[in-house]
Every structure is written in structure tokens, then in C-alpha cells.
Amino acid sequence: MTEHQLSLSPFYAGWDVYQQQLVAAIAPLTSEQLALRSSPQQWSVGMLATHIISARAWWFHTRMGEGSADLAPLGLWDRWEESEEPLRSAAELVAGLERTWQMIQDALAHLTPADLEQVFPHPDGGERLARSRQWMIWHVLEHDIHHGGELSSILGAHGLAAVDLE
């Protein structure tokens, strides 16, 4: 198999397991549990999950053009006012995680190592940084892990089941 035929999926194996563990941690939560925070000035569990979904949609769909147009609204889910708590249920968050994961999984299946070199300008233009596909995929992965860790820490601190990394 040549480099041009090889998809990116094998290089990101394990991300799918993290996705499943993130969904398993979010799915049983009540609205009260989604509102839990590590401190009053920090984001809640629900806000963190919303932000993970929004970032996935923004980087993969808005920046790289992956997935269908119906994913675009998910890229705006985390545009709330500082004093406003987003009101999404665990079921909505799970659906958002699953929809954005399917988009990521589909992209990794059809993209090749050669595709990583493609550079995308910022959609707003101006002097914002252009980014390579490689940078954006890595950024979304590290973003999932970073904010998933925050979410997991909050759940664990409140005696709830955290993201189970085995």
C-alpha cells in the first residue's frame, strides 16, 4: 500500500476509544450534574462538553470543509455570554459528540498523509494564522484530551464517574 492510498485512521487509533469514554461519562448526567464546576469562575461540565463539540465542528467543518452543512450550527454552540449557562441536556451533548465524532472519523478514513500538508486560511481572513491540516487535526485531538480531562476532574471531585481511561 502506498502513502497515497493509506488513510489517516491508523495514525489516530485510540481517539475513538476516548470518544466512547467521553460519551459514557456524559450520558447519565442530570442537568444539576452538568452544571457542576471546579470553582465559580470556571466552566461547568456542560460548558466543557459543549466547547469540545463546538471546537470539533469549527475546526473540521468550518476550517477544513469536512462533513455536511448541518454541522455548521454545532460550531457556534459555545458562543454564550459569560454570565449565561448553556442549557443542553446530556442527550443533546451525547448527540453532538456522536455527530462530530462521525465527521472526524469520516475525515480520517478518506484523508491521506499527503493531505496533512494542505494549509487553510482563517475563514475571517485578515491577519489570522493559516493552519495546516496536520496542525488542526492534532489541535482538535489535544483539545479533546485537555477539556475532557477538566471535565473528568470535576466529575471525580464530586464523586461521579469520570472519563474511564482504564
Based on the model shown, name its key terms.
single chain; mainly alpha; two-stranded antiparallel ribbon
Describe the structure.
The protein has 166 residues and is mainly α. 49% of the residues lie in helices and 2% in strands. The protein is built from five helices and two strands, in the order ααααββα. Strands 1-2 form a two-stranded antiparallel ribbon. Helix 1 packs antiparallel against helix 4 (90-110), helix 3 (45-63) runs parallel beside helix 4 (90-110) and helix 3 runs antiparallel to helix 5 (133-157). The N and C termini lie far apart (33 Å). The mean pLDDT is 91.
In short:
With 166 residues, the protein is mostly helical.
